[in-house]
Amino acid sequence: MEKKSTHILNASSNLLGFSLLIITSLKISRISHSTYLDEFAGVACLCFAFSCFFSFLSIRTRNEKRGNRFETIADYLFLTALFCIVLAVIIVTMKII
Predict the structure, then answer these.
(1) Distance CA 23, CA 8 (A)
(2) Per-residue pLDDT tens for 30-88?
(3) Overall domain count for the chain
(4) Maximum distance among all alpha carbons in the chain?
(5) Closest listed residue to residue 47, CA positions, set 12, 13, 81, 75
(6) How far apart, in whole angstroms, are the C-alpha atoms of residue 45 and residue 37?
(7) Which domain holds residue 11?
(8) Half-sphere exposure at residue 30, Cβ-oriented, CA atoms within 13 angstroms
(9) Burial code of 53-89, b = ≥16 C-beta within 10 A, e = fewer?
(10) Phi/psi of residue 71, each to 5°?
C-alpha cells in the first residue's frame, strides 16, 4: 500500500493556513461572537496541526508498524478537520443566503 503521509502533510499544512485565515478575518471583522464559525475553524486548526505532526512522524519513523499507525491517526485527524471546514462553509453559506 502506498504511503499517503506526504500528501496528508502537504494538504494539512495548506488547509491549516486557510483555517487560520478564517479565524483572523473573523476576529478583525468582530463577528466571531455571533456565530459558531470560529469554533469550527479553531477545531479544524487543531486537527490540521496534529495531522501535520503525525504525518511528519509517519514519514520520519523507521518502524513501519509505528509509521502506519501515525499515518492512520493523521488520516483521521485530517478527515475530522475537513468535516469542520465543511461545517464552517455551510454556516457562511447560510448567513449569506
Answers:
(1) 22
(2) 776 667 788 888 999 999 999 999 999 999 999 999 999 999 999 999 999 999 999 88
(3) 1
(4) 51
(5) 81
(6) 12
(7) 5-96
(8) 0
(9) bbbbbbbebeeeeebeebbebbbebbebbbebbebbe
(10) -65, -40
